[in-house]
Specification:
The protein is α/β, with parallel strands linked by helices and about 220 residues long. It has two domains: about 110 residues, P-loop containing nucleotide triphosphate hydrolases (Rossmann fold); about 70 residues, no CATH class. The chain contains ten helices and five strands; from the N terminus they run H-E-H-E-H-H-H-H-E-E-H-H-H-E-H. A five-stranded parallel β-sheet has the order 2-3-1-4-5, sandwiched between helices. The two termini are about 35 Å apart. It binds dephospho coenzyme A and adenosine-5'-triphosphate. Adenosine-5'-triphosphate binds next to helix 2, helix 7 and helix 10. It is an enzyme of class 2 (transferase). Keywords: ATP-binding, Coenzyme A biosynthesis, Cytoplasm, Kinase, Nucleotide-binding, Transferase.
């Protein structure tokens, strides 16, 4: 009986073990393979969030204060129902650097707020935040993973994924994003995606084991 009471007391006195998960930022330029890598981490049951998808949910909601502000600033890219028109990446933001900076400044606080709330509701040792825009700064991650491939491979993959995009449109998006060098120098770890999906998966599994070992 004494032992049972002692054990109950020791359990009650233990501090709450619930801690906020570590954050791995997953970044890279357009077509580098971020979403492909994110899905591989999801297959390993790592909770993942796509910041660009969060941004999309915001600017496709005409009542969201960020959407109202964006449409006020850029009425030319409003759809008839008050959302941000999806083609606006090519017609405005990939060709007008100032407009792009303003768009990101409006969206970023709302996206980060959502992503941080989501993170604090997770119980895994670590979570993954995916975004092409992480190297823009202001994102507090424990570890930055950059998915990399040569510009030629990325252009080919984006063209295959988006057949209606022209070569010029793709190069404009490249030019709006951080340089390949900035992505690489800002990373703690690089995943080289000039390989087969199978070899990519092996790199992901190795990295996952490393994270689990340090943060278990
Ligand atoms: C410009 C927008 C409206 C175009 O939307 P659309 O659905 O047509 O494109 P999608 O989101 O699928 O983007 C496709 C790819 O283009 C690249 N990209 C998108 N937006 C940008 C941008 N503003 N600057 C540079 N590259 C971009 C990314 O590699 C992205 O994965 C949208 O991408 C957007 O809201 N971008 C800003 C996102 C943002 O500020 N996120 C904050 C993260 S902290
Ligand atoms: N190792 C690979 N072998 C063959 N195709 C690949 C490989 N990795 C990615 N792809 C393909 O390349 C395209 C771009 O990959 P993905 O969408 O993952 O890139 P991304 O970095 O998320 O791009 P974006 O910034 O536009 O969201 C996709 O169609 C994907 O299926």
């Amino acid at each position: 009986m004494k032992k049972v009471v002692e054990r109950m007391l020791s359990v009650e006195q233990k501090p709450c073990l619930r801690t906020v998960p570590h954050v791995v930022a997953l970044t890279g330029g357009i077509g580098s393979g971020k979403s492909t890598v994110r899905k591989m981490f999801e297959d390993l049951e790592v909770p993942c969030i796509d910041a660009d998808l969060v941004a999309r949910e915001i600017h496709q909601n005409p009542k969201h204060p960020a959407t109202v502000e964006i449409i006020e600033a850029f009425p030319e890219v409003a759809s008839p129902d008050g959302k941000l028109s999806r083609g606006s990446l090519h017609t405005l933001f990939a060709v007008d650097c100032i407009a792009n900076v303003k768009l990101k400044a409006i969206l970023k606080p709302y996206v980060l707020n959502h992503v941080q709330h989501w993170t604090s509701s997770m119980t895994a040792p670590y979570v993954i935040w995916e975004s092409a825009l992480i190297v823009d700064g202001g994102i507090d991650a424990d570890y930055v993973v950059c998915v990399d491939a040569s510009n030629d491979i990325r252009v080919d993959r984006v063209r295959a994924r988006n057949p209606s995009w022209t070569h010029d449109q793709i190069l404009r998006i490249f030019a709006m994003q951080a340089s390949r060098k900035s992505y690489l120098t800002g990373a703690d770890q690089i995943i080289c995606n000039e390989c087969s999906r199978r070899d990519l998966q092996l790199q992901v599994a190795k990295l996952h084991n490393k994270f689990i070992n340090i943060w278990k």
